[in-house]
Amino acid sequence: MPLRHMIALLAVGFAAVAAIQTPAHAQVWQPSNGDRLEFDVFRDGSKFGKHVVVFSKAGDQLTVDSDIELKVAFGPLTVFHYVHDVTEQYSAGRLMSLAAKTKKDGKWKQLAADAVEGGLNVVGVAFKGLRTGVVIPSTHWNAAQLKQPAMFSTETGAMLPMQVIDQGLERVKVGSGEVEARRYLVKSELDATFWYDAQGRWVKCAFNAQGSKVDYVLRELPS
Question: Of 74, 29, 26, which is closest to residue 48 (Cα–Cα)?
Fold first, then answer.
């Protein structure tokens, strides 16, 4: 599978086998105003992008902005460029709206979702219509995604089933130090691993793609 497709799977969630294993330990983090999750993204040890999530909070209103840019170039020649920007709006914990734009293979596509009576009205390239029940976007900062049978793709609007396996606790590098975090394997065509600390903060991600090892390294924990 081409690297660009592997990276896209990470950004939109992971199409997986049917069996679901729900992790009992996944805690849900409540971010504060101004909190940031800033990841440097490495491919075989060399930096090739960033993934930044910024939280803005006022009362029970929460805005989450995710900005992903990954690029591989050889001199003036760009061979891979992926951009994915998402804005989520919540009120009292309920997803009220989501807007996303994605650049892949040199083309832009958009997704919009708005809360309506009975659910979430979605307009995306893979789905147009009403999503009912709890909808958790595939922006990965919310560890509650691990407790759901499927993840809402912020690239296409599709609901993507997952198999999640709790792999226990381990130490993870964050900035100049380490933090204890719980490791979860998300299985699919692409096996990817996510780590969340005791507060439910997303602190690391790793996967292999087309013979390359891709690592997300968090610059520092929110204060």
Answer: 74
